[in-house]
Write the structure tokens for this entry.
Amino acid sequence: MATMSHHPQQREKVVTAGFLWGAMVASYMIRYALGIVAPTLMSLYNLSPATMGYILSGWNWSYTGALAFVGPVIDRFGPWIVMGTGSVIWGLSTVALPLAGGAVSLFLLRMVFGFGQSVLIPATSTSVSRMFGAKERARAVAVAYSGNQVGLAVSAMISAFLLSSFGWQAVFYVLGGGSLLLTWGWFALYPDRRVGRLDRLAESSPAGSSSGEQERTQQTIPWLSLFRYRSTWGISFGQMGYLYALFFFISWLPGYLVLERNMTVLRSGLVAALPFWAGMLGTLGCGWLGDYLIERGVRPTVSRKSIIGAAFTAATVMVITAAFVEQTWLAVTLLTLSFGSLRMATGSVNSTSIDLAPPSIVGSLNAIQNFFGNIGGLLAPIVTGYIVGATGSFVGALVVAGGMALFGAICYIFIVGNLDTHQIVPAQAPLPQRHKGHEVEYREEKSW
């Protein structure tokens, strides 16, 4: 009974991770589907690459804007009700997308989709923070985020098949309908269906919360004061570089294969799945590696930053090299390895906000991180569209994507501070215990 009182039941952890994984699969299938049908829509509606770039970024405008306030909403009401509501919105807007008759309506419906999607990442981080301890956190994040790689890979194949066999409208009817079915399961079966702030629910928190953990969950901090911390800016700008590179692949990889490498739509769908299968392996492998290093006594700061630095640097080298090779098979191989390397950092990158803050404000901090990150994600398809339109080539776009990945590595390594204990805490709270020699770094954090 003592063990049961100090740890959430394993079954609840498995179900939680499974639903977070499924939400990632469904949402990323829909995100990527528009990239698959983009060449068809460009021909059907006579759209330029620049115009298509805006349409591909449409969901990210509302997604990024909503991140400015969705974090505190999740902290206030909890991930169950907020994630469920968001998934209803993104599912219905996907089913409605075939009603679009041109560039403006495509853009607007994708904006509605993006508004629903804005809850996905902060709610996932809050769920992980509530249910999983520090030594299993990167694995939980990796399992959840491996879903977006599966979603991207499966979407590449399914969307290409549906597009070739039944037309572009069928892609969104099928994917949107499947997402709504998952939403029903979320509302009915998700383990933690409490509604309210975690500090107000401390007495009814999962049995696994120790007294120390309950004390941390009751800490609160004004949302705007999070910007006083150096590490807030580090994870924000680091995420900007990361998501620019990531969303270059998600938005334009199918178009690159069709327009630059002259592949058919069906073949491009199959080939475009390869980087995302590599991404799944990278996500899971380095998620486990990150926790393994910590269990073996490596400090979280060293574990997280070394994985992020190595992954982003390797991705940079390979995507820039791919820009200049002539052989299609070699370019595809390099892009596959580049994306797999990029995703090796997933578990570490998305654990940083959980490492830095107590559970009661993780949603807010993660929303800030991804607000800035998605500015990069929003710009990626637009900048790529302009570069391709102006030069008639993807070479410059690939180089820019690599440069942004390297920028992300620099920010995570040199601007983000100590990750060994919560650095972002209420001013009235006592300093958390930390390893000798870290107190100077903590004071530096507060001075920001």
